[in-house]
Amino acid sequence: MASSSSNNVNEIKEVSWSYNTATEFKIFVNNRITQDKGCLIRYVEERNELRNKVEASQDPISKRDRNSINMLTALINDIIDGIRELEGQAKLMEVHEQASSDED
């Protein structure tokens, strides 16, 4: 997946004949990372609030609450994986851009 990201940047540069579109693509990826991190924070807070509420009630955790906590945990893990992938793509774009500028 990471090499396809580098290929995307190369294709954008070739088609646009400038670095403007490639730069906009990098900005998009970085904004996406920021948005995903914000979403991650909200879901972690929501999961923790639910967990604290359930634990404070001293009642056994209902199946519904357990499923909600498990669902939020799975969603959090997916978001973390997505952020790591996007950060890897962003790093590869930087390395590729540096290599391209060194060739010029």
From TrEMBL:
Name the record gives this protein: Uncharacterized protein
